[in-house]
Amino acid sequence: MTVSRRKLVVTGAIVLCAHPFLLRSTSVNADDSWATSFSESLVAYENDASKLSLPPTGRTRAGSVAQLTEESAYIEGMPRLVDLIERASSSSSPEASALADKAAILLSDLNDREHMVPRRFAQTNRGPRPPLTSIRDDYLRLFKNCKTRPEFAGVVNWYIQTISTYAPRYKEVSSVTSIPWYFIAIVHALEASFNFRAHLHNGDPLSQRTVHVPANKPDRWLPPSDWKSSAIDALTEQGFTGKSDWGLERMLYRWEAFNGFGYRAKGVNSPYLWSFSTNYTSGKYKADGRYDANVISKQCGAAVMLKGLVNAGLVTV
Q1: What's this model's pTM, rounded to 2 decimal places?
Q2: Cis? peptide before 131, omega within 30° of 0
Q3: Strand ranges (DSSP E) for the chain?
Q4: How far apart (Å, rounded) are the C-alpha atoms in residues 250 and 245?
Q5: What is the pLDDT of residues 155-172, one digit of tens each?
Q6: How far apart are CA 241 and CA 83, in angstroms?
Q7: No. of H helices and E strands in the chain?
Q8: What does the DSSP 8-state code read for residue 205?
């Protein structure tokens, strides 16, 4: 197993378990061992939480299993890690804080493995940037017809519940940036897998400035745990601050522009917007920057999250 590029550093805290995982395998041939190591670490951390009698969040999805596969690791593992971090963060004990740090690093690595934007590779997914006027009707049609695929109904519901739970934190950033809180929430889901112990820029741990592109961010920051200032820097870096038009089509356009319009040349609706919905089946730019028609995104799309928020009565667009 290949040792992760991330290192766990816990100061002034008791480390509950010495797990060698800390993550990431770079070889396709090592996917089985990666999934096994990931599963072992996740279950060990959940057992640590039980030993500490950390209260559940109430959002943990049913049907948790000990052994996840490469295909199920993100869809099943990400919600469990988010809930685990929240549980551990609710306690003031050094043991719980150490557990939250370890779970956050595991989530950062999982996010890095699944992340839709291959920014650290050639920008082959960018594609020509069409004017919004030429695709506005396409956005409206797709959003109107957007329905969650039945097999993803449970996990999409978890996304919506999680966004609602964390809404106060997103609204704090919204009050500074004038960006709709739910737009920030969806960026957080896509770029950092709801990890509040990671930079919004790319999901890298808050224990240091970013390593992946954009690297060495934020320029001005109060380490090691100031998520809010880092989030504001990320939204500014991404060009989302200072905008006045936040209508439905404009939001969809900003999300797609940020991730890249290359899917349109492939005849595929961008999974960054439509994954988990009837508007998307398969096709994704992989971590090597190349498109594979058979790969299926395991992250919920931005438009699907937005439609879920609208259907839940939490947002009006």
Answers
A1: 0.87
A2: no
A3: 284-285, 291-292
A4: 7
A5: 999 999 999 999 999 999
A6: 29
A7: 12, 2
A8: B
